[in-house]
Input
Amino acid sequence: MTEWFVYILHCADDTLYTGITRDVERRVREHNGNNRRGAAYTRGRRPVHVIYREACSSRSQAARREHEIRVMPRKDKEKLAKSP
Output
C-alpha cells in the first residue's frame, strides 16, 4: 500500500498552500516547474518549499486532513509546521 501525504508549502509571497500527494518531492518540483502540473495558485508564487508533511494511510484520510489544515488560521498552520 502506498502512503499518501498532506503537505504545506511556503510560497515566495509569504502565503501558505496545502495539498496532498503520494510523492512530496515530485509534487514540489511540479509546483516550481514551468509546466501545467503545478497548481494554478503556486504558479505566480514561486519558488515554493515544503514546511510540513504528514503521512496518511489512504487518499480519503489525506483529503480529510488537508481540509482540516486548510481551514486552520495561519498561526495554527505555522505552529503545526514547527512541531516535531
DSSP finds four helices and three strands in the chain. The first strand starts at residue 4 and ends at 11. The chain has one domain: 4-82.
